[in-house]
Amino acid sequence: MAHKVSKLFNETLNEMNISAKQKAVLQASLQLFSEKGFENTSTNEIASLANVAVGTVYQQFKSKDQLLQVVIESLIDEVIPKVANEFVAGVKVTQETEFGEFLQNIIQDRMQFAVDNLPQIRVLVRETMVNKKVQQQLQARIVKLPFDRLKDFFADYQQKGQIVEWDFMRIVRYIVGIVGSYIVPIIFSPGQHEADVGQMSHEATEVLIKELKP
Amino acid sequence: MAHKVSKLFNETLNEMNISAKQKAVLQASLQLFSEKGFENTSTNEIASLANVAVGTVYQQFKSKDQLLQVVIESLIDEVIPKVANEFVAGVKVTQETEFGEFLQNIIQDRMQFAVDNLPQIRVLVRETMVNKKVQQQLQARIVKLPFDRLKDFFADYQQKGQIVEWDFMRIVRYIVGIVGSYIVPIIFSPGQHEADVGQMSHEATEVLIKELKP
Amino acid sequence: MAHKVSKLFNETLNEMNISAKQKAVLQASLQLFSEKGFENTSTNEIASLANVAVGTVYQQFKSKDQLLQVVIESLIDEVIPKVANEFVAGVKVTQETEFGEFLQNIIQDRMQFAVDNLPQIRVLVRETMVNKKVQQQLQARIVKLPFDRLKDFFADYQQKGQIVEWDFMRIVRYIVGIVGSYIVPIIFSPGQHEADVGQMSHEATEVLIKELKP
Amino acid sequence: MAHKVSKLFNETLNEMNISAKQKAVLQASLQLFSEKGFENTSTNEIASLANVAVGTVYQQFKSKDQLLQVVIESLIDEVIPKVANEFVAGVKVTQETEFGEFLQNIIQDRMQFAVDNLPQIRVLVRETMVNKKVQQQLQARIVKLPFDRLKDFFADYQQKGQIVEWDFMRIVRYIVGIVGSYIVPIIFSPGQHEADVGQMSHEATEVLIKELKP
DNA sequence: GATGAATGAGAGTTCATTCAT
DNA sequence: AATGAATGAACTCTCATTCAT
């Protein structure tokens, strides 16, 4: 179930009807913005990583800011919904699935996803901190994500009396909080952790099951 | 128990044996780095906010990078330990204090602290994402923070059988995770939330008590 | 007698044996050079006003400079001689025509011509100021203009004792000077004057008759 | 009576309270704008002619456009009024002065002035053709020039019956027209004419006296 | 002939840093 | 110690020109 954002990003670029060079520009931008941050990346660097002349960058994109916008918007408006859809659709659950197993699956999957896509997550996090427009776009997108199927599962477990009768958003908040307590340190310290997703997801599931008991 | 980082930052500057002008420079730097980010702040802006000539900035500080270093180091090596000390020292607990009350106090206090010091937290978070040196410094400092007294309290509650026998770091991780699930959205969306610390800390305590039950 | 330069320019283009697209390029160039000046006009703008791809511009013309050359040369070497010929040929004069009537006709005609063709005159004036080659071309052309018929008329009036025995060029200089004193302000302030050609030519004729009396 | 605009321009710069380097920048700008036109002059060229670093140009002036503005405004709002004042004040005329002598003096003086200051006149002419703001500023300034003393002289000659009873502005128009018929060709062809101011002013005076007879 | 994406030299501009005062 | 004009490397961006399609 875990995806490579870079692959989905490339698919998005393919749908954008731009030339191979322009795609290379956007890929180089994503990579460099992720590695060094937007302000510390020069258009010259982007061009040379993309094997392209500086002017080519500006053929399609009006400014460096617009380049960021396009990269971020692709992530927010194209990649994130795809990721969310595939994630939600990929959740395997039957009438017999215990909540613990269900939760373990979700958590392991999302942790693996985070660990697999640290650079792209970092760009989004960083730009969200600096750029108001990005904040609003991301927020607007998150609100619209199709979590209905997931919501239904949780409602089912609530009806069966397996988990507490809290609001769906509150439950999500705590799952994200506990998962984040493992993932955020990794996001912030690149290359320092050997992330053991199995161990982390096991622990996180344990505590969350306890937390969400009726 | 909650503190104003800016006040502690000023105290730190007073101890640094620098002139009033240089203090103003550091204060202006912290403010502007927090508002616009390091890269988007020019030395001219810093100088003019500090009511000082550009040259004066370079009298004391070798470079703009050093200026950031000094600001960040002051926060990490002076302010954070003070904050931690005062926090830990300020925790009121007796033999009769129930764990719930103890936890509620801690959480409310730290949430209030976070809400009161958003700009400074933002600088640290942002620079930690871009700047490897800052990452290492912050990490090295956190490890050395004097949490022994706190640790003892938790050990006590564990001995009394009031909380689960998890590792202290694991317990802290979950507390930070749950508290973070309320605070992080506020850090990322400046000016959008009316933070109701009372309500938030109440909810967070409720879930954490459940989570930490034996 | 007054002509539209744009019409003559088009005729010139028709004689040039170039494609419709290339004609559109030259027309767009003339228009944009006149509106914004050569340096402030980009080849992209020319192409898009001409509804043509940039490459098409360079199919026919070696460089942007050559484009200017062609436009200017068409004006100087084709349009101006035509204008001059038609003007000179169109002067109606018989043995009975008084000098005043003759002069009034000439002046009114040329003033109307100037007012009708301000944009093209502006291009020529502007480029003449910046571009040495244009200066030389224009000068060389003016010297060769076929003013013989006009010269004869003036010689006739001189023989009849109706006008002063000045050199033809000196007479022309003063006519141009007086007419210019009305027209130049209009050239320099686009859109500010309601040019009353009747009134202006009347005044100019009055003073010139006086001036050219024997 | 004839002045060097460059000297008056320098005086204006001295009154502007700017450093020697900044003065050099403005002088270099005037020179280059005059020689090659604004668009064909690069900030690098200005800096190197002024013996200054590129950055220095931008220390005082926000943009290349502002540099032009400052140069033009100095000419229009400082130099031109000074020139006009000195010219009008310098006109020597007594009750005995014949109109012809009076006119000859004026014309020779202004022709000499024009010939002596061709570069600066060229900048103004050229920018007036391209730049609407300059047009308005120049026009607004010309209207306010203090020609009262001159007007009185002409009124005197009119009362004495020595010249025709035309409106002052109409008389000025024709003087400018005739003088212009000698000067404009020189403005437009730099370095081609050996301007014989004596001969030119003599001819111009001759025709103007005739023209302005009652 | 026509196209327009690609090119890269060079433009205007910024800004961390220096240094004479 | 403080000043701020001066510096120039490096940035973003433009645009005349080319060339594979």
Automatic annotation (TrEMBL), chains A, B, C, D:
DNA-binding in keyword set: yes
Swiss-Prot/TrEMBL keywords: DNA-binding
Matches recorded under InterPro entries: Homeodomain-like_sf (IPR009057), HTH-type_Tx_Regulator (IPR050624), HTH_TetR (IPR001647), Tet_transcr_reg_TetR-rel_C_sf (IPR036271)
Residues of the DNA-binding region: 42-61
Pfam families: TetR_N
Domain HTH tetR-type span(s) in chain numbering: 19-79
Protein name: TetR family transcriptional regulator
Species for this entry: Ligilactobacillus pabuli
